[in-house]
Amino acid sequence: MNEHAYRNELDRVSYTPEGREALVAALMHREGAAQKGRRAWRRRWAAAAVAAALLVGTAAAASVSLWDRYFGSLTEEERSVVESLSGALPAAVTSNGTTMTPLSAFGDGTSFYILLEVTAPEGTEFSSDENYALFGKGFDPDHRACLLEQDGSQTEGISYSIDASWMEVSKAEQNKLSMVVSVTASESIDGKTLHIPGLWLQESAVVTGSWDFPLSAQMGSASAMEVKAAGTTTSWIGGTLTLETLRVSPLGLTMTYRYDPEELRALEEREAAQSDMVVTAEDGSAVPMMVEYIPTAQISLVLRDGSQVCEGSAFMGGQDGLRTLSTTFERPVDLSSVDYILWGETKIPLS
User: Fold this and answer.
1) What is the pLDDT of residue 69?
2) pLDDT above 90 covers what percent of the chain?
């Protein structure tokens, strides 16, 4: 999760400005340390996976080979899902001497994954030990990855997140780097364009330019299904949640649900009365740290064999009384193998 994602998450929580900035910094520091090992694990297989793909006879098989260890060892059913969601690759793009070449991509309408090989000019030295970012200092709109409309304007009116995972850098070609960029949105992103303005390391630019990759409308949108379960309820610590809409795909889900604002306010008032947490303001005074509760319940897919597929990255939005949750799954899912959706303690059948 990058800093943009953390700030998206913090949009759901109220802090003083000082407390908010301190928490973002702390989360970024912890995330960097925590993800070193996970991303290093992914780097180890990247070179071998790419090499193996070049030896495979068909494009579909090559695509599966490239993604197999990104999600962990995929089952045959999961590999079939990836293959069914794969489409035509965007063309390679060169900007300011750096070329980004798509090696594989797949998506389902609201989620999109693309594996890119970055080849920078000679003399550039990438490192397997670093975590690069798709945004620069201060979140200048010109210095962060985003989605674009067909007219080149930035996409507005929908919530989405863009994340990247980095892979192994060859000692023989340190100017080359492979990365997986994932996009998750609350609504369809078919026909939009992924715009990458550069790579940054600790807010210092490594390469900058303009790399645009259309998100194919041919990729697996038809695989998603609308679950007719409006009115279904589940419990959370503050009361009751009531489902309005639920869309499930092999890569994730989007749902909207309602909660009672009065129940939420009552919970927050009870907790505030019992809390002694404070933060220090600019004038040195101690002020209460106002933390809002988020009306939500854990959600997962329960497969017919009894195993569960949990949500991976997720973000929320909404207004008073209504919430929208968009989440990806930890791995691709063959929806025919799903028994039901577990929302809190409530079971929701797919059909």
Assistant:
1) 65
2) 41
